[in-house]
């Protein structure tokens, strides 16, 4: 009986060798995800020519960028209908005759955000897949490609951080944020983490501390406690990595009472540099000036005072000003960049004025100053060897339990609407769609 | 050609054959101010006593550049002592050299090796180190305008942006003297140029002219505001205008791109967007040809550069400079025209 049933099953499969049924979650136009998504079932060709592979997808998370793609606000275009999903994990079913690096049964993740993932099965090019360690658990695999590498690249590729250095971030309990916390701990760095306030925020703070966070503040707490923070990497990098400054050298900056500005003041004092600080005028400005002087500021001017008396003041200085730090733009940028001596450098880390940055022509032509920015961390490295090494490292950390995926809620495909609504509400961790029923076999959670 | 006249009484008959004087005409200014007003054409006798390290030069031709105007107005950083002779570039022929001058000889075609020489004159005795000899076969119009603009274009394309054939350079002031050399040198080196110019009634003619020099694209400032979004792989932007024009250039730069500022025709500060600094890691630099010349470590590069430029001139790779020839006597008119329009260069021919 059992054998006969198996035989029939095989015959059924035999007849349908070139086509299989696959459910998918897709949208036919842009719009609110809880309105435009629908569950479909269709027959797809399972033929795999040369470089193609048939994948059985097991799990794929709903990331913020997936919401944006569906809404139409993400810079990415494809023809409708579009199957959702940007990262995920699956198992190889069949390979084309020109595929030598993958075989049926291999566990894989998709590379690149354009693969139609919210699908039980689909045929993709083998170049769009990366083989993973089969010991990697389902949820870590499903959330492997976007968030951990972003955190990894930001911590490794932009600033030469030494053990004990401090990193500061917001959105600390997001997918990327949690990867940053854990990787920072693994790399021996300290992390300062900002989160939004919420009921029972203490629970979340404890959870992040258990992950490895050194300091956790809500956004409000941090605004009030900013003067306690000594080493944010932006200020540190600007003072260390752009100009060879000696003790006694002078640095000029605007936005002096901002988070970065205050760090610049304090670090400058620690490094033996003098700082000239510009702030916006306000009632009781004298109080703020005293506060900044107590932090270590050598000179504090309002923007107006510097415009009027700046020239005279600058001629009284005994050393050239070789570094200007700009977080404002517009005429404030013009004021501090004009104070630079020949060959000086202007570093821009922000644009609080929301206007463009003004620098005089003569500063460039006759004083040969350089204007640069401090690069942000959303450009991932393009070197393949390096990328593979990074993924190997990240997978090891996941298998060893040193790098944990974010807390997730799992949903079967038919429950996709509920998953989307939870994702849209936010503050519910990450929602992961379980696609082909075989995912239950892999999910050890 | 000297005129052999006796010096008045100072040196005696015995030495009369050695000490002769040359009559020179020069355009001098004794105070800073409006050039047509403060400049005067004066005649003088100069002693032909050429010291060891000096040379007697007969100036052949010298243009009026914007920097020359600024210098007379008193707003240029290079300020020769007053009273000063106008003009910072030009060409001349060596008449005589002092005993210890080995690298120049009579008959050599020379250009200034640095600014501040005072070239709007017929003759002068100058330190030989302030002169630089070039290929004699270079035609006068080229030689007289060889020191400032072609080298600025050459250096900016060489020293910034690590350009390879096929790369794109974008610039404003595309029809300025430097701008046109940028187009031509880029063409010779296999680089693409996208050029922004101010709109004008003769815009179609201008676009055709620049394209015939080798420009790949020519846009008015208004057209560029729309087209700029589709530009890719822009590694180098050259800015001589400032203000909104520089903002638009900076926005087109790709990752690691550089915008080099070499002039400020709008008299507005250079503008840069925040996003470009922070997300595309661009840098903004400046370039000043005069300053580059003063650095001794650039001597070899200078030789290589002038070799290239002279070869390209002789191979007719460059369109002849557009000049209006003037005698020194016409200085008032020439200065006025130089300050009003920049279509053709006013060139004193001595």
Automatic annotation (TrEMBL), chain A:
SMART domains: PKS_ER
Localisation per UniProt entry: Mitochondrion
Stored Pfam families: ADH_N (PF08240), ADH_zinc_N (PF00107)
Broad enzyme group: oxidoreductase
Assigned EC number: 1.3.1.104
GO BP annotation list: fatty acid biosynthetic process
Enoyl reductase (ER) domain mapped to chain residues: 31-433
Keyword check for Lipid biosynthesis: yes
Domain of life: Eukaryota
GO annotation, cellular component aspect: mitochondrion
Sorted UniProt keywords: Fatty acid biosynthesis, Fatty acid metabolism, Lipid biosynthesis, Lipid metabolism, Mitochondrion, NADP, Oxidoreductase, Transit peptide
Primary location: mitochondrion
Record-stated family: Belongs to the zinc-containing alcohol dehydrogenase family. Quinone oxidoreductase subfamily.
This protein's name: Enoyl-[acyl-carrier-protein] reductase, mitochondrial
Taxonomy of the source species: Eukaryota, Metazoa, Ecdysozoa, Nematoda, Chromadorea
UniProtKB/TrEMBL annotation, chain B:
Subcellular location: Mitochondrion
Residues covered by the Enoyl reductase (ER) domain: 33-348
Keyword Transmembrane helix: no
InterPro entries named among the record's database cross-references: ADH-like_C, ADH-like_N, ER, GroES-like_sf, Mito_Enoyl-ACP_Reductase, NAD(P)-bd_dom_sf
GO cellular component: mitochondrion
A Pfam family: ADH_zinc_N
Keywords attached to this entry: Fatty acid biosynthesis, Fatty acid metabolism, Lipid biosynthesis, Lipid metabolism, Mitochondrion, NADP, Oxidoreductase, Transit peptide
Annotated protein name in UniProt: Enoyl-[acyl-carrier-protein] reductase, mitochondrial
Organism in which the protein naturally occurs: Acrobeloides nanus
């Amino acid at each position: 009986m059992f054998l006969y049933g198996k035989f029939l099953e095989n015959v059924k499969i035999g007849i349908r060798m070139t086509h299989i049924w696959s459910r998918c979650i897709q949208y036919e136009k842009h719009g609110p995800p809880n309105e435009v998504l629908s569950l479909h079932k269709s027959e797809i060709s399972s033929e795999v020519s040369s470089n193609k592979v048939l994948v059985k997808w097991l799990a794929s998370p709903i990331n913020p960028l997936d919401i944006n793609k569906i809404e139409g606000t993400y810079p990415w275009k494809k023809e409708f209908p579009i199957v959702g999903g940007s990262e995920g994990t699956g198992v190889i079913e069949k390979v084309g005759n020109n595929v030598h690096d993958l075989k049926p049964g291999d566990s894989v993740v998709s590379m690149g955000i354009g693969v139609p993932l919210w699908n039980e099965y689909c045929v993709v090019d083998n170049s769009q897949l990366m083989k993973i360690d089969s010991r990697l658990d389902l949820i870590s695999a499903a959330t492997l490609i976007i968030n951990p590498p972003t955190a990894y690249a930001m911590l490794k590729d932009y600033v030469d951080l030494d053990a004990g250095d401090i990193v500061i971030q917001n959105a600390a309990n997001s997918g990327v944020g949690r990867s940053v916390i854990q990787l920072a701990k693994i790399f021996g760095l300290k992390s300062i983490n900002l989160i939004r306030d919420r009921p029972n925020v203490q629970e979340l703070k404890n959870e992040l501390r258990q992950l490895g966070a050194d300091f956790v503040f809500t956004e409000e707490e941090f605004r009030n406690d900013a003067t306690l923070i000594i080493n944010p990497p932006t200020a540190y990098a600007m003072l260390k990595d752009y100009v060879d400054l000696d003790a006694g050298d002078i640095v000029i900056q605007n936005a002096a009472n901002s988070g970065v500005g205050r760090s610049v003041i304090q670090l400058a004092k620690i490094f033996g540099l003098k700082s000239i600080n510009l702030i916006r005028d306000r009632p009781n400005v004298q109080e703020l000036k005293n506060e900044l002087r107590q932090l270590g500021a050598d000179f504090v001017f309002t923007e107006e005072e510097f415009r009027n008396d700046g020239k005279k003041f600058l001629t009284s200085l005994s050393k050239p000003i070789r570094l200007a730090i700009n977080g404002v733009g517009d005429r404030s940028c013009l004021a501090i960049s004009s104070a630079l001596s020949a060959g000086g450098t202007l570093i821009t880390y922000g644009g609080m004025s929301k206007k463009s940055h003004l620098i005089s022509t003569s500063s460039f032509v006759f004083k040969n100053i350089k204007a640069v920015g401090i690069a942000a961390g959303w450009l991932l490295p393009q070197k393949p060897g390096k990328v593979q090494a990074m993924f190997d490292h990240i997978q090891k950390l996941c298998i060893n339990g040193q790098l944990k995926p974010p807390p997730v809620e799992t949903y079967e495909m038919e429950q996709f609407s509920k998953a989307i609504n939870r994702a849209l509400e936010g503050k519910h961790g990450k929602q992961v769609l379980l696609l082909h029923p075989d995912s239950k076999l892999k999910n050890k959670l | 050609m000297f005129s052999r006249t006796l010096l008045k009484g100072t040196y005696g008959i015995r030495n009369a054959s050695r000490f002769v004087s040359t009559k020179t005409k020069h355009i001098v200014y004794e105070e800073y101010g409006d050039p047509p007003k403060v400049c005067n054409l004066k005649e003088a006798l100069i002693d032909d006593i050429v010291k060891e390290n000096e040379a007697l030069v007969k100036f052949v031709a010298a243009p009026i550049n914007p920097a020359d105007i600024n210098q007379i107005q008193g707003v240029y950083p290079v300020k020769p002592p007053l009273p000063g002779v106008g003009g910072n570039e030009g060409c001349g022929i060596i008449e005589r050299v002092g005993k210890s001058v080995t690298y120049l000889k009579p008959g050599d075609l020379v250009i200034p090796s640095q600014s501040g020489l005072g070239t709007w004159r017929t003759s002068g005795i100058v330190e030989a180190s302030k002169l630089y000899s070039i290929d004699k076969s270079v035609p006068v119009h080229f030689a007289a305008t060889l020191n400032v603009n072609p080298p600025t274009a050459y250096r900016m394309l060489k020293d910034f942006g690590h350009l390879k054939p096929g790369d794109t350079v974008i610039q404003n002031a595309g029809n300025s003297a430097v701008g046109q050399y940028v187009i031509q040198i880029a063409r010779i080196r296999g680089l693409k140029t996208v050029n922004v110019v101010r709109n004008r009634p003769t815009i179609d003619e201008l676009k055709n002219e620049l394209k015939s020099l080798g420009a790949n694209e020519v846009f008015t400032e208004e057209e560029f505001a729309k087209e700029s979004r589709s530009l890719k792989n822009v590694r180098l932007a050259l800015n001589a205008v400032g203000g909104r024009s520089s903002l638009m250039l900076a926005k087109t730069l790709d990752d690691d791109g550089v915008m080099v500022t070499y002039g400020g025709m709008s008299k507005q500060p250079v503008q840069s967007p925040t996003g470009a600094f922070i997300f595309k890691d661009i840098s903004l630099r400046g370039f000043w040809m005069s300053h580059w010349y003063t650095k001794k470590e650039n001597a070899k590069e200078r030789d290589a550069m002038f070799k290239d430029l002279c070869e390209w001139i002789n191979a007719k790779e460059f369109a002849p400079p557009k000049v209006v020839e003037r005698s020194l006597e016409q200085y008032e008119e020439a200065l006025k025209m130089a300050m009003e329009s920049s279509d053709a260069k006013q060139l004193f021919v001595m």
